[in-house]
Design goal:
Blueprint lengths: L19 H20 L7 H9 L5 H35 L11 H16 L4 H22 L1 E2 L2 E2 L1 H23 L3 H11 L8 H28 L3 H6 L4 H23 L5 H13 L3 H26 L7 H18 L7
Antiparallel strand pairs: 1-2
Helix pairs in contact: 1-3, 1-12, 2-3, 3-8, 3-10, 3-11, 3-12, 4-5, 4-6, 4-7, 5-6, 5-8, 5-10, 8-10, 11-12, 11-13, 12-13
GO cellular component, one term: plasma membrane
Protein name: Iron complex transport system permease protein
Membrane topology: Multi-pass membrane protein
């Protein structure tokens, strides 16, 4: 008589997968964060009056506050968070490094150095002027890192990180050398360096929006190959993917997204580092879902951080760059402690 051996059921949880329901919930949260951003400030405004000011602007005090001050701030917060979250997911995917951050490409350091040169050499004092200098500096720095970190076989993840660290250190040193010799430049640079979405008009949003759209399009193109690149370049090549071309497109998307955001807001830390881990926890390992989740989570996080900055020290405000550093540091420590969240 033969007996059949029963196999115990697996206790391992099935892998998470993104879903339309999850995306819907994130969209609802993003809309809620946007409405809260329009309503909360040094003067709180009821949601009904906010909607009335949006639909029927009449030049009143409430209409001026909502449409003139908070709409540009909220729009820039949503765009900046979405861009940083998407760029972080792309960066971690293309480098296969769970601790990779868009700043590793030298984008922040390049933008800061360009702003300093604009103020010191050309007397730029407006946010609109900062944006163009910062965007150019971010692009040139990222291009230099990409060129240094690439070989005949294309960009190497380890080489990119090392090149980014070296270029960033050089540009930071050059920036410090300039600001320490000129007090006026130091004051202007400190205002931009803190990272904020306040006091930016729709003109700044309009200037950087085309670059953000172009970066998002390249990110969508890059998403098709990211899953295969996680298996290694050789396997991806055998499956019909050209790794060098895919990485060039992905890094170009990161450069556009982070460069434009840094130009408009200044450097905002930890968003591109933390958000992809949260997206991976919710959506699983499929990068087609991770990129979309990261975009929405980034928008929610930055907008919520900006709201929190208005509440922490009322009637004054904390800039969102400071709030993100206060929140992002401890959150990232918790993420790293949970090893299963940082595995790619």
């Amino acid at each position: 008589m033969t007996t059949t051996q029963r196999v115990p059921p697996s206790t391992e949880a099935p892998p998470r997968r993104g879903s339309v329901l999850g995306l819907t919930l994130l969209v609802v949260l993003a809309v809620g964060a946007a409405l809260a951003s329009l309503a909360i400030g040094s003067r709180d405004i009821p949601i009904g009056e906010v909607l009335g000011a949006l639909l029927y602007p009449d030049g009143s005090d409430i209409s001026t506050i909502v449409n003139g001050l908070r709409v540009p701030r909220t729009a820039l917060g949503l765009l900046a968070g979405a861009a940083l979250g998407l760029a972080g997911a792309l960066m971690q995917g293309h480098t296969r490094n769970p601790l990779a951050d868009p700043g590793l490409l030298g984008v922040n350091a390049g933008a800061a150095f360009a702003v300093v040169i604009g103020v010191f050499a050309f007397g730029v004092t407006s946010l609109a002027g900062y944006a163009w200098f910062a965007l150019a500096g971010a692009g040139l720095a990222a291009a230099a890192v990409f060129a240094i970190g690439s070989s005949r076989g294309g960009p190497n993840p380890v080489s990119l990180v090392l090149a980014g660290a070296a270029v960033s250190a050089l540009l930071i040193a050059c920036t410090q050398a300039v600001v320490l010799t000129d007090r006026a430049t130091l004051n202007q640079w400190r205002f931009w360096q803190v990272g904020s979405v306040a006091n930016r008009g729709l003109d700044v949003v309009a200037q950087v929006a085309p670059f953000l759209v172009a970066g998002a399009v390249l990110a969508a193109i890059s998403s098709r190959s990211l899953n295969l690149l996680q298996l290694g370049d050789d396997v991806a090549r055998s499956l019909g993917i050209r790794p060098t071309r895919a990485k060039v497109i992905g890094i170009a998307a990161v450069m556009l997204l982070v460069g434009a955001t840094t130009a408009a807001c200044g450097p905002i830390s930890f968003v591109g580092l933390v958000v992809p881990h949260l997206a991976r926890f919710l959506a699983g390992v499929d990068y087609r879902w991770i990129l979309v989740y990261s975009t929405l989570l980034g928008a929610i996080l930055v907008t919520a951080g900006d709201i929190l900055g208005r509440l922490m020290v009322r009637p004054a405000e904390l800039q969102v760059g400071i709030v993100m550093a206060l929140i992002g540091g401890p959150v990232f420590v918790l993420l790293v402690r949970r090893a299963r969240l940082v595995k790619l």
